[in-house]
């Protein structure tokens, strides 16, 4: 089973969905580490409760390359061959991305290439989009860029707020991410 490290910054609901999926006997990947750039990230507790090794180190006071070198050492020490970003709200340094080229995957709450960056749901509503959704993509040095592996779509409904739309998309994120990771590691 392909060893995967998951990186988070907060709640970790996508991480939890990946941990649940990894329990299936036929899942072709396993989670060897959950890492966070915030030692107080709520998802760390979820991972510990599930018996998954965790690593946390604040990025504060370190430049991007030096911080990413710590992440690199931690994920390699855990034996990871793939990295899944799950609400990891940090740009990765070009050196880190090239060292892991094609082996870092991210989930983004929009139908890429639409709405890269933050506040995706507010921007989808503002733009009058009739559909929203989420995308799993290979990470490149450009923000929320790189080949899309899978997408899921939901309607934008009259009266939606960023919060109601985010909740509808999040349900799909939790379904999509495990499936896309399976597709990627079995390619
Ligand atoms: C998710 O909606 C994820 O798609 C988004 O942050 C949320 C994290 O929630 N990621 C990004 O916006 C990355 N650019 P979670 O911590 O509960 O998985």
TrEMBL record:
Give, as one word, the top-level EC class. transferase
Q: Which GO terms describe its molecular function?
A: phosphoribosylglycinamide formyltransferase activity
Known SUPFAM superfamilies for this protein? Formyltransferase
Q: What EC number(s) does this enzyme carry? A: 2.1.2.2
By its UniProt entry, which Gene3D superfamilies does this protein fall under?
Answer: Formyl transferase, N-terminal domain (3.40.50.170)
Q: What does this protein do?
A: Catalyzes the transfer of a formyl group from 10-formyltetrahydrofolate to 5-phospho-ribosyl-glycinamide (GAR), producing 5-phospho-ribosyl-N-formylglycinamide (FGAR) and tetrahydrofolate.
Q: What is this protein called?
A: Phosphoribosylglycinamide formyltransferase
């Amino acid at each position: 089973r392909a060893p995967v490290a998951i990186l988070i910054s907060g709640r970790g609901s996508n991480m939890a969905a990946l941990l649940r999926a990894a329990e299936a006997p036929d899942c072709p990947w396993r989670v060897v580490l959950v890492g966070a750039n915030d030692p107080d990230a709520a998802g760390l507790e979820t991972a510990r409760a599930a018996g998954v090794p965790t690593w946390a180190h604040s990025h504060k006071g370190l430049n991007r390359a030096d911080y990413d070198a710590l992440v690199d050492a931690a994920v390699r020490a855990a034996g990871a061959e793939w990295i899944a970003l799950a609400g990891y709200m940090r740009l990765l340094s070009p050196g880190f991305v090239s060292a892991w080229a094609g082996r870092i995957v991210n989930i983004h709450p929009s139908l890429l290439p639409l709405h890269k960056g933050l506040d995706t749901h507010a921007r989808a509503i503002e733009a009058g989009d009739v559909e929203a959704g989420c995308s799993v993509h290979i990470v490149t040095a450009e923000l929320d860029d790189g080949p899309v592996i899978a997408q899921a779509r939901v309607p934008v409904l009259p009266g939606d707020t960023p919060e109601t739309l985010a909740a509808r998309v999040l349900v799909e994120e939790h379904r999509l991410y495990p499936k896309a990771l399976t597709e990627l590691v079995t390619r």
